[in-house]
Design brief:
Structural class: mainly alpha
Distance between the termini: 58 Å
Largest sheet: none
Oligomer: single chain
Order of helices and strands: HHHHHH
Helix content: 55-70%
Number of domains: 2
Number of helices: 6
Shape: elongated
Strand content: under 5%
C-alpha cells in the first residue's frame, strides 16, 4: 500500500472503531456513562488527533490491530490519564489556586465558610 492508501485505510478503521464505541456508550446507563467519562474523552481526542499525528509507519503498524483506536486510547490514558495525577502536579494546582486567589472572581462562594471580614461578591 502506498502512503495515501495507508492513511485512507487508517482513517476508515478509526471511523469504524469510533462508531462502535459510540454505539456501546449509547447503551450505557447514566451512572455507567459518567464512570466512563475519561475513557470517552480520550477516545474522542485520539480519534480526532491520530489521522494527523501518526506517521505513515505508525499507521501501518496500528492497522495490524482490529481496534487501533482502543490501543492508542488505552496507552494515552495509561500515560496521561486523570487517575495518574502526581503529587507535585496536584500541589502546583492547589498552590496556584490559593496563591493567586483569582478563582473567587469566577466561582460562587459559600458564605458559611468565608472569613468574617470577607463579603460575598457577585460575579
Amino acid at each position: 500500500m502506498n502512503p495515501t492508501e495507508i492513511k485512507q485505510a487508517f482513517e476508515e478503521k478509526l471511523g469504524k472503531n469510533y462508531a462502535h464505541f459510540v454505539t456501546e456508550w449509547l447503551a450505557l446507563q447514566p451512572t455507567e456513562f459518567i464512570e466512563k467519562a475519561e475513557e470517552i474523552a480520550a477516545t474522542k481526542l485520539m480519534a480526532e488527533l491520530l489521522p494527523e499525528a501518526a506517521s505513515t509507519d505508525q499507521m501501518e503498524y496500528l492497522l495490524r490491530f482490529s481496534n487501533p483506536l482502543e490501543v492508542v486510547r488505552d496507552k494515552w490514558i495509561e500515560e496521561n490519564g486523570s487517575e495518574m495525577v502526581h503529587d507535585d502536579e496536584m500541589s502546583h494546582a492547589l498552590w496556584s489556586i490559593t496563591d493567586k486567589q483569582d478563582a473567587e472572581q469566577d466561582y460562587e462562594l459559600d458564605e458559611a465558610f468565608l472569613p468574617p471580614e470577607q463579603e460575598v461578591r457577585m460575579c
